[in-house]
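hey so i finally got around to running both of the ones u sent me last week. sorry it took forever, my laptop kept dying halfway thru and i had to restart like 3 times lol. anyway pasting them below in the order u listed, first the sequence line then the structure token line for each. didnt double check formatting much so if smth looks off just lmk and ill redo it

first one:
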Amino acid sequence: MAKYWEKEKPLIVTTSKNVMQFFSEAGKLSVAKPPWRDDNDVEKQGKTVVYDLGALMESSVDTLTAARDLFGNILGQITERLDLLS
């Protein structure tokens, strides 16, 4: 059976320090360090963590509220930065 990262093309945002991938159908958000090259010059994915939105949706109201506040804070900081740059 194919894994979600093999079946779905994610929305990808890359910075100098992170690679974020959102797999909307699977409900997964991954955040990784940038890719690196091994001794044979083969590109490898950086260390990655995956946030399971499906598991979040099964959480308590308090946990859902805390997650909403966390993501809202992140969005607020991004919005403030965009406002400064425009």
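and the second one:
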Amino acid sequence: MKARTMITIAAGLLVLSGALAGACKNGGGGGQLTIDEYIQQIVSTDQAHEARANPFRSQLDQAFAGLSDSAPVPAEAVTAFGGLIDEEEKFLGEVSDIDPPEEAADLHQEAIDSLQEDHDLLAQTVSQINETTTFAQLQQLFESEDLAQAETRRTDACLAIQQFASDNGVEVDLTC
């Protein structure tokens, strides 16, 4: 896969991992939600997160437009990646009170585990951006097999939650 695409995917992963986090973060709220309530909270939290994350994705698109491999890493890209990581952490905090129904416990735990792995790898990768001097080096950061595996695991967990919703008569499209 082309490195430019991997960088775009990585930015998307930061946003999408927030969507799963809304579905998956255990917390101490006011009791378990019904399946409908759980899915509705996933959707509404995801939509709010998307609205806040979209400006960072736009900044990345603009920063990477037309860059050659030897071009220096745009400062706007570094700022946007940092903003995406901060937004993901903020989002995780906002969803900490979501309490999934018992029927979703295993899916919920897998999603939490996959999100944690994905977040940790992305945060580690983003923390290394300042060590790059060219766009080609930046692209190489995001061509990690570990990141690709974490993306697959996260996507699988998201699709499992979406299927769980569908199996329970709740049709949603979680941007997996």
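quick thing i noticed on the 2nd:
The two ends are 19 Å apart (CA to CA).
anyway thats it, ttyl
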